[in-house]
Specification:
By secondary structure, the chain is an all-alpha fold. It contains eleven helices and no strands. Helix 8 runs antiparallel to helix 9, helix 9 packs parallel to helix 11 and helix 10 runs antiparallel to helix 11.
């Protein structure tokens, strides 16, 4: 294009020839349009922008942003608001500036959350919330552990022949499953020396079906095979 090309002619040529007008295009750099734009005085570009309609600006936002980027001192174009005042181009430029500023503020806010202090604060908060959520469970577990400890202490003073009946009569139902693992070896050793009574075997069966684990293992070792 010649140096005498007007701003309006540049717009027509860019649209007719389908020139790329994307800001920061990584494929072609929008060089044909940008090179042609540089041949026009900034005053004439601003005068041309003042003539653009709102419909044109809405349809050709990339071209408008590229033009502002090329003629503005800091690319964002704040200093052009006054020369464009009272035109659709000024309104369009203000919306673009507001959008860019909003992105900048969001980025600043995000970066503020990524400082070592902010990250440590979030970790501490997360840890506190986790402790608060799991506290009821930990309290229940601590209570159960204490009950198991007391029950084991009581079982240590019970003779083997009375052990199963003591467990059934004195152990809380919530402890019967873990107690099976604790009493397993003593009961197995005892019933291997002394034949298990049918009533006790039936009690073991009930425990094995309800609490599985070591009760099931004990019952499988002590149960009498069915007659062939």
């Amino acid at each position: 294009m010649s140096k005498s090309t007007s701003f309006a002619e540049l717009i027509d040529v860019a649209i007719t020839r389908h020139w790329c007008t994307r800001p920061l295009c990584t494929t072609c750099g929008s060089h044909p349009f940008r090179n042609a734009l540089k041949q026009i005085l900034n005053e004439d570009v601003i005068a041309g922008l003042r003539e653009l309609s709102d419909d044109f600006l809405s349809t050709n936002d990339d071209m408008f942003r590229l033009i502002i980027q090329e003629i503005a001192f800091f690319h964002i174009g704040g200093e052009l608001l006054e020369p464009l005042a009272g035109t659709p181009a000024a309104n369009h430029l203000q919306r673009n500036i507001d959008f860019i500023n909003s992105k900048y503020e969001k980025r600043k806010a995000y970066e503020a959350t990524q400082t070592p202090e902010a990250l440590e604060a979030r970790r501490s908060e997360k840890k506190l919330l986790s402790e608060q959520r799991t506290q009821p469970h930990r309290e229940r577990k601590a209570t159960q552990d204490s009950l198991i400890k007391d029950t084991v202490e009581a079982l240590n003073h019970v003779d083997e022949e009375k052990l199963l009946s003591f467990i059934l009569q004195n152990c809380p139902e919530t402890l019967l499953r873990p107690i099976g693992g604790i009493a397993y070896k003593r009961l197995l050793s005892h019933y291997r020396k002394i034949k298990i009574e049918q009533t006790e075997l039936e009690n073991l069966k009930i425990l094995s079906e309800k609490y599985i684990g070591y009760w099931q293992k004990l019952y499988s070792k002590l149960s009498i095979p069915a007659p062939q």
